[in-house]
Structures are given as C-alpha cells and as structure tokens.
Amino acid sequence: MFKKIFKSMSREHSENAENELTQDELVNNTETTDQQAEPTEGIPTAEGLSEVEQLGEDLAKEKDKFLRLFAEFDNYKKRTSKERMDLFKTANQEVLQALLPVMDDFDRALIQISKSEDAALVTGVELIYNKLKDTLVSKGLEQVDIKAGDAFNADFAEAITQIPAPTPELKGKIVDVLEKGYKLGDKIIRFPKVVLGN
C-alpha cells in the first residue's frame, strides 16, 4: 500500500516538476521576446547612425525622389500642352497653303475685271474675294506687310532678282512685290517674292 501511495506521490511530484519547468521556460521565452521587441532607438547601426536617424535619411531621400518626379511630370504636362496649342495653331497650314494660289488668282482677276465697264461683275467678284479672304483670316492667315520702298530683310522676304534701281532711294531696297507673302500666327508659311534695286 505504501508502494502505491509512494508511486502516486512520485508521479505527482514529477508532473509538478515538468509543469514548473514548462512555466520557467515560458517565463524565459517571454523575457527573450520582450527583449527582442524593445526598440533599438539609441543603438548605432553599422554606419554609425541610430535607427531613427537612418529612417530620417531614408525618408528625406524618398521625399527628394518624389519631388523630382513631380517636377518632371509638371514639365511634361506643360510641354505637351504647348505642343498641343502649337498643333492647333498650325493644323490647317496645309489647307491654307493650298488656297494661297486661289487668292493670287483672285488678285489678278480683280485687276483685270476692274478694267471692265460691268459694275455688277466687279462687285460680284469683289464679294466672293472678300468672303474667301475673311474666311482665311478667321483661320489665322495674315498677309506679310511688305511693299515697294521697304528695306529688304531676308527673314521676311525672298529676293527673286535684282534690277537697276529706278531712283537712288530704292538702291538696296524692294522695288516691286511679285507675290504676296502670308503667315499663320507667327510662322511665315509663304515668303513674299520681291525684286531688289541695285
């Protein structure tokens, strides 16, 4: 009987010892975990900076990258907006250039028709000419303002030939305009063709 009691007591004692060991292990594990979870605020890293300083530097670098990217995107938006506006301004350039010979024909026709005695014919052609001219002007077409007696500037006119100047004042200047020039906005789409006096 003593043996049975002794065995049961020794079993309880060994179970208690195991439980105690398990509880000790739990306490040790918890302490280790707490120590690992503690912030390493004052502990220097390999570069000699604390973790907070390192994070601050990383944040500053990322902020700088973001600002640069934002500036690049803003420049891209401005550039594409300017290109789009330029495209809108000159989108109809080919059509306008194709209509310039028609304008020249109208100019020549008006000179010849004005010699006619038929006033209704002259008025009718002038109406059509003015309507075409107003339509082209509304699309941005402008005539290059150049006339006989003006100083020659190769940026705004194209010299076809030179002739002896009829008067000394016209020497090196424009004697005659053979073909009108036109511009679309600030861009000259056809240079006026002129004769120079030498």
Describe this structure as you would to a colleague:
Keywords: Chaperone, Cytoplasm, Stress response. This is Protein GrpE. Residues 25-38 have a biased composition (Polar residues). The protein is an alpha+beta fold and 198 residues long. Among the domains are: 59-91; 93-139; 141-198, Nucleotide Exchange Factor Grpe, Chain A, domain 2. It has helices at 2-37, 51-90, 93-113, 119-138; strands at 141-143, 158-163, 174-179, 182-184, 187-190, 193-197. Helix 3 (93-113) packs antiparallel against helix 4. The radius of gyration is 47 Å and the shape is elongated. Residues 17-24 and 29-42 have low confidence and may be disordered.
How would you briefly describe this protein structure?
It holds the Pfam family GrpE. The protein is built from four helices and six strands; from the N terminus they run ααααββββββ. With 198 residues, it is of the alpha+beta class.
Q: CATH superfamily membership of the domain at 141-198, which one?
A: Head domain of nucleotide exchange factor GrpE
**Secondary-structure content class:** alpha+beta
User: What's the count of strands?
Assistant: 6
Q: Supply the number of helical segments.
A: 4
Could you tell me the strand content as a percent range?
5-15%
Largest sheet: 3 strands, antiparallel
CATH architecture of the domain at 141-198: Roll
Looking across the biggest beta sheet, what order are the strands in? 1-4-5
What fraction, in percent, of the residue positions are helical?
55-70%
State Rg: 47 Å
Instruction: State the CATH class of the domain at 141-198.
Output: Mainly Beta
CATH T-level topology of the domain at 141-198? Nucleotide Exchange Factor Grpe, Chain A, domain 2
- Separation of termini? 146 Å
Overall geometric form: elongated
The overall pLDDT, averaged over residues, is 80
